[in-house]
Specification:
Blueprint (H helix, E strand, L loop, with lengths): L11 H7 L4 H7 L1 E5 H9 L10 E6 L1 H6 L1 H9 L3 E4 L2 H7 L8 E6 L5 H6 L4 E5 L5 H13 L4 E5 L8 H6 L9 E5 L1 H10 L3 E5 L5 E2 H7 L6 E5 L8 H6 L2 E4 L11 H19 L1
Parallel strand pairs: 2-3, 5-6, 5-10, 6-7, 8-10, 8-11, 9-11
Antiparallel strand pairs: 1-4, 2-4
Helix pairs in contact: 1-6, 8-13
């Protein structure tokens, strides 16, 4: 373990990993990059619906292999190929300013929309027009923390496997079912047929979140539709929902950012559902 085997940025394995920074190559290879010990640790323990491990390869510096020996050992035990790389080579592949020495190559892990519907979800986050990858990953993390059953990214939203999305999810990407590429109309119709009430989160909504909670209307299966942070949800998407709900602003703040608003909405539903049961 004293000498890295990959010392050239032109190595075929390094080149293959580097090109996954581009969406076209991710889609072609159906692979994405997970960086850092937290994400790699979660990837090691994840398997797809077919039972096949999600992590296929692990790149690590010699120092990181010693520091995170348990992760490296678990990756090997799960069947992943482990490559020891020079720190400069790994930095060339990394999408972070300060690489932590661990970089995993993972299979796509999104599931068919029908899989989520058959599970009769009680709490779902629908990202309808979210274009910022950091926001998408953070909302996914919030949904995981609130105990949501799934996250759905519509075809108008950012690529789930963008390195910034993966990083912002802080490992939550590997914790709950995620659906990608569903038209918003199809997402709403499918969830409604599954008994889910659809609420569109919008700062200009007619209904107040506090009033919804006081009225006891949020205890049942709920899907929250979140839109673009800058311009919100289009009128056509708001019209698809059963209600358009605003998070009340009790102070002088002009608005809440997307991830904060999503956390408030999802936790409100989670609390209401627990009280009801």
């Amino acid at each position: 373990m004293g000498t890295p085997e990959l010392i050239s940025p032109r190595s075929p394995r390094v080149t293959a990993a580097r090109r996954l920074a581009r969406r076209a190559f991710r889609g072609k290879e159906r692979r994405f990059v997970a960086e850092g010990p937290q994400a790699v640790r979660e990837a090691v323990g994840h398997r797809g619906d077919d039972g096949v491990p999600t992590l296929t390869e692990l790149f690590t510096t010699v120092e990181a292999a010693e520091r995170y020996a348990d992760i490296v050992a678990a990756a090997r035990a799960a069947g992943a190929r482990v490559h020891h790389a020079d720190a400069a080579v790994l930095a060339d592949v990394s999408q972070t300013v300060t690489p932590q020495g661990l970089l995993g190559i993972c299979r796509f892990l999104d599931v068919p929309f029908g899989t989520v519907l058959r599970a009769r979800p009680r709490l779902v986050a629908v990202l309808a027009h979210v274009r910022d990858p950091g926001n998408a990953g953070t909302v996914l993390r919030c949904a995981d923390a609130a105990g949501a059953d799934a996250v759905v990214l519509t075809d108008a939203s950012v690529d789930l496997y963008n390195p910034k999305s993966v990083r912002a999810s802080a490992g939550s990407l590997f914790h709950l079912p995620v659906v990608v590429g569903v038209p918003v109309e199809e997402a709403v119709a499918g969830l409604r047929d599954a008994g889910v009430r659809l609420l569109a989160a919008d700062g200009a909504g007619d209904d107040d979140l506090d009033d919804e909670l006081d009225a006891g209307t949020m205890g049942g299966p709920t899907g929250w539709i979140f839109g673009n942070e800058a311009w919100g949800l289009p009128a056509g998407t708001r019209a698809l929902a059963d209600a358009v709900v605003r998070v009340p602003i009790h102070g002088r703040a002009e608005s809440l950012n997307l991830a904060t608003a999503a956390a408030v909405c999802l936790y409100a539903s989670a609390r209401a559902q627990r009280v009801r049961t």
